[in-house]
Each structure stands twice: as C-alpha cells, then as structure tokens.
Fold:
Amino acid sequence: MAVSLPEAPWWASAVVYQVYPRSFADSDGDGIGDLRGIAGRLDHLELLGVDVIWLSPVYPSPQDDAGYDISDYQGDLRQPRGLRRAARRRARAWDEAGDGPGRQPPSDEHPWFIESRSSQDSPKRDWYWWRPSRAHMEPGASGAEPTNWGSSFSGPAWDLDERTGQYYLHLFSRKQPDLNWENPQVRAAIYSMMRWWLDRGVDGFRMDVINFISKAVDADGSLPDGIVRDGALFGDGRPHFVCGPRIHEFLQEMHQEVFAGRPELPLTVGEMPGVTVEEAVLFTDPARGEVDMVFQFEHVDLDRGAGRWDVRPLRLTDLKESFGRWQAGLADLGWNSLYWNNHDQPRVVSRFGDDGQFRERSATMLATVLHLHRGTPFIYQGEELGMTNAHFERIDQYRDIESVNHYAEALAHGQADEGSLLETLRTVSRDNARTPVQWDATENAGFTTGEPWIAVNPNYPEINASEQHDNPSSVFHYYRSLITLRHAEPAVALGDFTMLMPDDEAVYAFLRRHGQTELLVLGNFSPEPRPVLISDPAAWTGAQRVLCNIHSGAVTGASNLPELQPWEARVYRRQVG
Ligand code: GLC
Structure:
C-alpha cells in the first residue's frame, strides 16, 4: 500500500496498473477478455503490489475502435460490481469507469447520436457537430466537407449523413462522432453520468483525449480549415481543437459539478495529446480544480519525424531534455504521470530497449528510470513481464482500426509499398501492445481456451507470468521491488529532481532529494559498458545500493561507482548534510 505523506495526496506514492480488458484474461472461451477473467487474475496484481487499477472501456460497444466507441456508458453492472468488490479488497482504488467519459460517448450507435441524426430538428441535433457542406458545393462532392481536417484514423474528419444532408465531425473513427461541449445540456448529461459512476464506487476517471473537447469556432459558427503539409492528404485541424479556447472552463466546471465536495477526492487523469508543460501546469495546479495529472505525449513522439508513421531512432539526449523539462515544469505546482506503455503505444522493451539478448535487463532498466522520476507511474499489462512487440508478418494479423486504415490509405495513394508499410506497423502499431497477456506456457498462453481475437505472441513459452512468479530474478519481481521502494521511500514520491550527464547519449542519470535523503539513479541505454561521469563520485562512497538489475539485494558501503554494464540500472541512497 502506498504510504500516506502529509505533504502530498495519496496518489503521489501510488502505482497505477492499466488493464486492457479484451486482452487480459478470457473466462468464457469466446477468445475475448472479460470481467470475470480479470477477477480471476487479481492475485497477480496483489502480488505485484499496485495501488490503483485503471480499466480501459468495458461498456457495450460495436468495437470499431476496440471498445473506445461506447454505445452505453451505464451498461450491465452485475459483473463490474462483483469485480469492484474483489478488487477493492486488494488495491486502494478502482478506476473502472476510467476511459471515455470525457470527450464523447464515442459510438454512433449511442442513443444520443441516433436521436441527433434522426432529423435536423431533433432536440439533440446540437449535441454533435453537424455542419452543411462547404459553400457552393453539393453534399457528397469531393472536397465538400465543412473543413479539410483529416481524422486520426485516416480519411476526412467529417462524414455525410445522407438522410439529413449534413456532415458530422469525428476526429477519430466515423463511428465516434464528437460531442458538442458548447451545448450546456451535453455537459450536464456527461457530469450526471460521471456522478452516477462515483456513487457506485469508482475512485476516479481517466479521461480520453479530454483536451480535444473545446473547438475554436468562428463567430458565424463555422470551423476553420487547417494547413495542408507537404505530402499530406488532409489539413491539420489540431490548432483548432487541441487545448481549445474553453478547455479550462469546461474542466473546472466538471470538477465543480462532479468531484468537489466528495469526502475522498477521486483521482482524475486527463489524456492530452499535444499538451505542453505550461498548459499542464494550469491543468494540474490543485488550486484551479481541473485534473490531478495529465498523460502527455512528448516523450513517446521523440522517435517520430514528420508524423506518426515516420519512425526514427530515439536520441537519449532528447529524452532527457524532454523529461527534465517536465520534471522542472511541474516541480512546484501540478503533478506528472509517468508511462512508457499503454494500449496505444508499442512495447517499450522493443522500442527503447533490446527485446533479444538483453530483454530482461533492458526492460528492468527502463522501468527503473521511469519509476524513479517524480510523478505517478503507470504500468500497462504485460509490461511487468517484459512482454515484447507482436512482430506480425501479415496485414491480416492486425485488428487495430488505426493500423488497418493507414495501411489501406497509404497503399491506395501510393505513399508507400506493402513491405515498408508492414515494417512500419511492426514498429509502431498499437496492436503491438494488444496481444493477449501471457499467463503461462499452456496453449494460447493461458489467455483463452478458445480462438483469441488477436494472435498470442509466440514467445509465450519463455515469457509468461507463471514462470516469473516463481523466479525471484524475473522482470516481474523487479517491478515489485520498484513499487515497494516507492511505497517505502519518501524521496521517490516527493524528492526534488536533478538531471545529471544531460549530454551523454548512453547513460541516464539523476538525483532525487528529500530532506536528508538523496537517491542517485543510473541507467545504461546501450549494449556497451559505460562509465558514470558525474561531478562528485566520491560523495557516493559508503552509499547504500538499494536496487540493481544485475545483482540482487541491497548492499551498503559502495566505495566507488563502477562502470555500468550493458543496460544496467542502479539506485544508490545516501544521507546528506
Ligand atoms: C484515446 C484512446 C485510444 C482511442 C482514441 C479515440 O487516445 O487511448 O485508444 O483510439 O482515444 O477514442
């Protein structure tokens, strides 16, 4: 359990675990993970020692975007209730309604949208972004969309509804129409749904792309076109909806209407692509009453060039510059969340580590560096096992709408050939994170007795939870040590952060200081031995080595700082002045 520190909210020393239900555990053999499956695996989470469980959507859904297209936020509760009771006995918080409520009830099959699309006079017409075709153009003609924006899942961000002759906006799938937050009835309906979940015992929300809810509307009600970059098929609408003009107002209102006055304030996490440090300070300053922490994307965009599909190697100095700026920016006000992985990111051991010879060592090094920053760490299912990318060979193995649509669109427009597209997907696709959790060495990794909805990674006989539970030097047990350290050591939760060796391309080094305690964290991001070049190595003579991913057990009285072995991580503690 996380320690209670008088100076900080409880989640400063907590660790969150994300469950992606479709891929976690299947109890009824239909090949799709389910709530009973999760309930059957809570021992794993209890042993790991996490404090909060965040569930990706478990609501009724047409599954166009793997459950992020929700058709009923208040679906069948029987199973969630049982699961919540079971989980609460083991973790502090239960964040089951987590995903979605912020931006939209994303499915076009939600009754609100069905009503809204029924006629131009529908009382719910204005609950979504309906617009006529571009001036002097016939609806349905090429380029007649109200703006030139592209959707995140390829194609235009507008779809024509033939019956009423108007277009609706969808920043993601065409089956995820955007709600119109300008309309106070929409906001009231969402707040009421959120209160309903809190009254049923959830402890917080992770709000999906919440910084896209306010759009920059022109005085006449129209939305502006975006710039079309070289080689792009559509305009970039982001400047008109990322952290739009009323975003802070909406979040403050939500806080007042939903969270304020509750005896134990629920945890709120805002997923915010494109958010800057300066904006994050505003979003997370407790005095402003918006959200507790944001999910920012800067560090997971550093290995991208011109856009999402342009992959380039990570420069460690860029990562240090970015994380260092976020640590400094939120040092006095606000709070960081810390993550490498989630259901939208490829597996970190394959991305920034070495998923071959040094898989375990690089996975644990990456975990050490991340978890010892200031902020709340998030573990995505399977990360604690060092699970790797899927390494799919064929397009028909992919299920993710973003990957499949991109492949089709890029081929159709001659932007790339099949081979290079498959290569890119092997590195970037969200499906890399969505293969089933590898529980044991039995068929289908113990995930299902049926046919899994997406292929199990064939490396499950070597990488699985059952083997790691019994192996004290496994990635799993190393994650346990990191969580225990955060719970026990206030310097991890609260210490100041100082980056060391900012220009070194291989070693990530930093200090954490709280009161008289100082921690030195070292990680080698390379397959070569590397020296530790800090300005005052002698200060660490006699320090305690509290964690190392090569040698287990704490050691006191280190006399020097030996060079780091390939992918090695080490943490020292000393008392100062
Ligand atoms: C968020 C989710 C992602 C989803 C998107 C659209 O970014 O994390 O999985 O596809 O929103 O709903």
